[in-house]
Write a structure and sequence with these properties.
Largest sheet: 7 strands, mixed
CATH superfamily of the domain at 85-178 and 662-738: P-loop containing nucleotide triphosphate hydrolases
Radius of gyration: 64 Å
Low-confidence stretches: 841-846
Protein name: Wobble nucleotide-excising tRNase
Pfam families: AAA_13 (PF13166)
Organism: Xanthomarina spongicola
InterPro entries: CR006_AAA (IPR026866), P-loop_NTPase (IPR027417)
Number of helices: 29
Helix content: 55-70%
Domain Protein CR006 P-loop: 104-712
Mean pLDDT: 83
Distance between the termini: 51 Å
Strand content: 5-15%
């Protein structure tokens, strides 16, 4: 077998699991789930994932095996049996097939024919989508019951067996060499590309190898998906800063060595002690960090200066300048007050009331001025002219009154009074200033405490300072409250005030900052922190050493599984398949396709068949001859008959390149076609049935007659079966083939059986039942006489359902006599009188023939048929 030898030689340098797959396919014809599991493990072992030990295929031994093997065996079908819950098929019914020639199963619509075909399409090979097999709707809870069908077969070597279809699963796929052709198959050939169904067993090996690779890849991808989903997220170990551990983890891959991981997890007691030591050193060094110290010092300076400014704000009122100003203000006010008092006594002496000239009086005087000026419209106030009046009491002013008025106005307008007013205002302002001095430093307590930590005794000193200022405040306020001439004002003296202490402290900090700005510990700190982070990272990584080890192994396994899946690519299988196809198949396929088109009489359009490989399989497709110069889909231009013709040509051309003659099945192959295509297809099917077992299902009686006709012409074995149904059961085998398809001899056989039934009815049933049976009997006898005229009397020159008049058969129709005519006329007339299609007269019912008379009429028919056959022969 050159193809298998070719494949075995080709497989020698391919992956080991390919070799094992081919070995098992050749030896066992298929691969089980267990085989696929073994091949997955071999593939993994070959790529270092498992330690599985396996025997490498002996290529030479396998080659010797196939060189001595026979071609693929021919398989024929025996029967469909043991059906359970298959649509409405009758359970226990057996549909048998003739082992040779043609078996035709005829059935009207709804007789169960399609149900049997559905079973065959699920067990055997077919194009397109397999039909759904429903449960029996006439049986309660049928959807919860199992569905079963069994198809028995024989092989040319003499073995036999059966394939069981159960709940959409097969126990064996041996019957995939048997192909079913129907309307869907025809559509599939024209509209879609599909894998070649009939090819030498060697090429089937490649197809199964490709399927195997796909299954192995699917299972490996499942394992790979599981590994990918179980990854360990170690990003939390990388951290914010770069360490040796972070660099190691960022480059972690399938190539990482476990020994390398060990170098990054070697945390010891010594390194733990070093981590603690480094932590302490870093804290101390950070405390000495010039930048940080300068920053802290500047913050202190700002806080200290704020406190200093607060001290200075209260101290200002007790400086030499401020106290000297206070002395001047108090003395000025006292002097102005004394001078004003003397002038007032002069202006307001000898008056009848006291306190004239004080502030209340001045207010009254100014109000009188405003009233007078507004009422009189004059600006001269007081008016002391002749006949003038008092602006308050409106009485005439005497000379004394006029003099007093003038003295009052002179006092009010004197500079001394204005000076007193200014001195009084200033006195009041400074008095308020001293009264409002705030000596509460509670809000500065934290800063005072901070300075106390730096300069011992500062808290006591600042409290003494504040108390002294508070005492001085009281002294000054007393001077403002009882003004008098101050000869000397005492200036408080402090040895060292808080202000001078703070200034000294700030200066010291500023000097320290100047020195620190010239120093740096960054490099030292950087080294310590780097070592600390590295050691800490190693310590942390050590906790997860197992998880990281698993992660490295996981990555290695994923990479190895990727190598496994790369070995599952079918490109090389497709290339090999293409090469074998070109060498052994393609040219034959195309030539056979053309020959089949000629046999079927297809001449209108030039159609060519082409092939291509994909995923280890060989696909063929049909297209218009490129000489047409257009790109049009075949389905858009073909008639239904042309469509079916091309599909059948493709089907038969594939059969011609197979290495076996297994059975083929047709389901209504001429459905909806006219008589021209029906005759061509009938003839081709009969021709094929002389080479292999052919099974045809049809509901077309004309097609059935054509098959009979061509079978008789070519002396081909043909067995006809008929299906019938009951109300809730289908697929029931009728006792006889379709009546219309039976020749005279077969019909006579049916009449004999019917007569035996009639005899029983006459003896056991009522006259009414007997009458109906007699009518049926004579109806069948009349139709048999009609068939006798077509088949024997006229020698088949003209036949019902026939497509032509066969004039050559008239050569034997030369012996007819008046006796023949009278015999036929008399017997057909009697049958016409008796059968159910005629409404018999009353007297005829009374003279209903008994079985003896019926038998006599039947014997006349049988004898005349024998006589005519002898005469024609």
């Amino acid at each position: 077998m050159p193809i298998l030898v070719h494949i075995i030689e080709w497989i020698e340098d391919k992956p080991k699991f390919w070799q094992e797959a081919v070995n098992r396919i050749i030896r066992n014809n298929d691969l089980t789930d267990g085989d696929i599991n073994d091949l997955v493990n071999i593939c993994k072992s070959e790529n270092g994932i498992s330690d599985l030990e396996f025997d490498v295929v002996d290529i030479e031994e396998l080659k010797a095996l196939v060189e001595n093997s026979d071609s693929e065996e021919t398989v024929t079908l025996s029967k469909i049996c043991n059906t359970e819950n298959i649509n409405a098929l009758k359970e226990g019914e057996e549909l048998e097939f003739a082992p040779n020639g043609l078996t035709v199963i005829y059935g009207d619509n709804g007789s169960g024919k399609s149900s049997y075909v559905s079973v065959l399409k699920h067990i055997c090979n077919t194009r397109g989508i397999r039909p759904t097999i429903n449960s029996n709707l006439f049986v309660e809870n049928s959807d919860q019951k199992q569905q079963v069908a069994e198809l028995e077969y024989n092989t040319e070597s003499g073995s036999s067996g059966s394939v069981v279809w159960k709940d959409n699963h097969l126990n064996d796929r041996i019957l995939q060499v048997v192909d079913v052709f129907d309307t869907q198959s025809a559509n599939h050939y024209i509209e879609d590309e599909d894998e070649i169904a009939f090819i030498p067993s060697g090429l089937i090996v490649l197809e199964k190898l490709a399927q195997c690779c796909k299954k192995v890849e699917e299972r490996i991808n499942t394992d790979k998906g599981t590994l990918i989903a179980s990854s360990f997220d170690f990003s939390f170990l990388i951290g914010e800063y770069e360490t040796e551990v972070s660099k190691f983890l960022q480059t972690l891959s399938n190539k990482t060595k476990i020994e390398e991981l060990k170098t990054h997890t070697n945390h010891t007691e010594e390194s733990e002690a070093r981590i603690k030591e480094l932590g302490t050193s870093i804290i101390k060094l950070k405390a000495k960090d010039p930048k940080k110290v300068i920053e802290d010092n500047n913050k202190k300076i700002r806080r200290f200066n704020s406190l200093k400014d607060r001290y200075r704000a209260v101290e200002t009122g007790f400086t030499e300048k401020t106290l000297t100003d206070s002395k001047t203000i108090i003395n000025t006010f006292f002097s102005a007050s004394e001078i004003s008092k003397t002038a007032s006594e002069k202006a307001f002496s000898n008056l009848p009331i006291e306190n004239v000239g004080n502030e209340y009086w001045k207010t009254l005087w100014e109000s009188a001025r405003k009233f007078y000026n507004h009422s009189v419209g004059d600006t001269i106030f007081p008016n002391t002219d002749e006949n003038s009046n008092c602006p308050l009491c409106l009485q005439d002013l005497g000379d004394d009154a006029k003099e007093r008025f003038n003295n009052f106005e002179t006092f009010v307008k004197a500079d001394l009074q204005q000076q007193l007013d200014v001195a009084s205002t200033k006195l009041e302002e400074w008095k308020n200033y001293y009264a409002n001095l705030d000596f509460d430093f509670t809000e500065y307590t934290p800063t005072i405490d901070e300075i106390e930590e730096l300069i011992e005794g500062f808290t006591v000193k600042q409290a003494s300072f504040i108390n002294a200022l508070n005492t001085e405040q009281k002294k000054i306020l007393k001077l403002y409250e009882t003004p008098k001439i101050i000869e000397v004002i005492e200036i408080p003296e402090f040895e060292s005030t808080p202000i001078t202490v703070i200034e000294t402290l700030v200066k010291t900090l500023q000097e320290e900052n100047i020195k620190l700005s010239k120093a740096s510990v960054e490099e030292e700190l950087k080294l310590l922190e780097s070592e600390f982070r590295n050691l800490s990272a190693i310590k942390e990584l050590q906790k997860y050493e197992k998880q990281i080890t698993d992660e490295i192994n996981r990555k290695r396994s994923i990479e190895s599984l990727k190598k496994c899946t790369s070995q599952c690519r079918t490109t090389n299988i497709t290339i090999c398949s293409n090469g074998i196809t070109d060498t052994y198949i393609t040219s034959n396929l195309k030539e056979n396709f053309k020959a089949e088109l000629r046999k079927l009489g297809f001449k209108n359009i030039n159609v060519v068949a082409n092939t291509k490989g994909a995923k280890g399989k060989q696909y063929h497709y049909l297209q218009l001859d490129t000489s047409y110069g257009v790109n049009i889909s075949l389905k858009d231009i073909l008639s239904e008959g042309e469509h079916r013709c091309i599909s059948l040509a493709t089907f038969f051309s594939e059969l011609s390149i197979s290495e076996h003659k297994s059975a083929i099945i047709f389901d209504d192959p001429v459905s909806s076609l006219d008589h021209r295509w029906r005759d061509k297809i009938s003839k081709r099917i009969i021709e094929e049935s002389q080479e292999r077992q052919v099974i045809v299902f049809t509901h077309d009686i004309t097609f059935l007659m054509r098959l009979q006709e061509f079978a008789n012409k070519q002396d081909c074995d043909i067995e006809i079966k008929s299906l019938t149904r009951k109300k809730t059961e289908t697929g029931i085998l009728a006792k006889n083939p379709p009546w219309d398809a039976l020749p005279v001899k077969a019909r006579v056989g049916v009449l004999n059986a019917e007569f035996q039934t009639l005899e029983k009815i006459e003896n056991t049933e009522t006259e009414e039942v007997y009458r109906e049976k007699v009518k049926l009997m004579y109806g069948l006898m009349r139709e048999t006489w009609e068939r006798l005229v077509e088949e024997l009397l006229l020698n088949g020159t003209i036949q019902r359902f026939g497509r032509e008049v066969q004039t050559l058969r008239l050569k034997k129709v030369i012996d007819l006599t008046e006796e023949d005519y009278q015999k036929i006329k008399a017997n057909m007339s009697k049958c016409s009188t008796m059968f159910s299609g005629h409404d018999s007269a009353g007297e005829l019912i009374q003279s209903l023939p008994d079985t003896e008379e019926v038998n006599a009429d039947l014997e006349i028919l049988k004898a005349y048929a024998v006589e005519l056959k002898k005469r024609r022969n």
